[in-house]
Design goal:
6-stranded mixed beta barrel, alpha/beta, 145 residues, 2 domains, single chain, Barwin-like endoglucanases
């Protein structure tokens, strides 16, 4: 009888202890999942990040995808998906310089690049000598387009 009672008691202790450990690991997994979900819900304040390049002199006067002609002295840019007319603030991550541009063309079509800017914008970003710069793209303040 003692053996039976001891076996049942031992079985209950093991079962309850295992359940507590299981609940604890489930709770910590749930907490981890909630943290991952919460951090993924936090919006970035920038639209994109990557490499920027700029339009060279050989493109001056050629038509853009919007129908405008390339004007290297205008503060314009090419982006793959944003609507024409969208105002973007482009920030050079290497030196902190920024410029506002208006999307009027499609591109760039080179892997890893997120935007092509006009020569005038490239000068303001101080990226002409290097040809490329790591940038972040932000929607202009007060801009809906």
């Amino acid at each position: 009888m003692r053996r039976l009672l001891l076996g049942v008691s031992l079985g209950l202790v093991v079962a309850c202890g295992g359940q507590r450990a299981s609940q604890h690991s489930s709770e910590s997994e749930a907490e981890k999942q909630e943290e991952r979900t919460e951090s993924s819900r936090t919006p970035r304040d920038y639209l994109d990040e990557g490499l920027a390049s700029y339009y060279g002199p050989g493109l001056e006067g050629r038509p853009t995808a919007s129908g405008e002609k390339v004007d290297l002295e205008a503060l314009t840019a090419a982006h793959r998906t944003l609507p024409f007319g969208t105002c973007l603030r482009v920030v050079n991550m290497e030196n902190g310089r920024s410029v506002q541009v208006r999307v009027n063309d499609r591109g760039p079509f080179v892997k890893g690049r997120v935007i092509d800017v006009s020569l005038a914008a490239a000068k303001r970003l101080d990226m002409v000598d290097k040809g490329l710069a790591r940038v972040r793209l932000y929607r202009c303040k007060g801009s809906t387009g």
